[in-house]
Input
Amino acid sequence: MMRRQKVFAALGLIALIISVAVWILAIGGATAARLDILPKIDGFRGLFYAAPLAAFGAIFALLVLIAGRIMQRVSVRRALVGLLLSAGFLLLVAIVILPTRDLPPLHDITTDTANPPQFTTLPLREDNLAGVDTLANWRRLHEDAYGDLDSVIVPMNVADTIDRAAALAREKGWTIAAVDPAAGRLEATAYASYLRFEDDVVLRVTPAPGGGSVVDMRSVSRVGASDLGKNAERIRDFLRDLAAA
Output
């Protein structure tokens, strides 16, 4: 009996070590990317690198638990903790990925696909058609996924709209790159997730025919083919807050 307990204690410890290694790999990689020790995309991929290990750890821990149950009077608490940690990690990955599984590989999102606002201070990435190949494909996929995005009209003049947009951007923790109230232009860098992915934003504000201003916005991820819907979410939130000001 004593020998059996030692064997299951060792197996449980292995299951626990695997689960802890999963979280160290994922959190360590994400933190290194946040601090720019690793490239952002590599830190994000750490989640996927750790997922197979988490799946193996969960299965291994579950088998230890089942065997311990069959044997009876054998402590499998370590295996239980290992199972919970590994399964918890897999659940986290599912929460992040599953809601975005139907999104196209887009990272350049705007309210005006026919005439997107152009960056003049911040550089547009050289591989901006990565994942879509052609401008026509980008427009088609963009319309299918984010056809709800459109220009908004606010009851302020152009200069006041840009001033309010700049203040709102600072409230959100963005880094302002350029503000030109007279030209109706704002450029800034926003940040996404714990890893602080850098996404460049440009606002174009023009006089509305009936008074007020027309606001168009563009948000582009610096890395990756897909933004998992973050840029569209940013545009919706920012324009909603700007219109409510």
The mean pLDDT is 91. The CA atoms of residues 153 and 210 lie 10 Å apart. Strands lie at 108-110, 152-154, 175-180, 185-192, 197-207, 213-221. The longest helix spans residues 2-34.
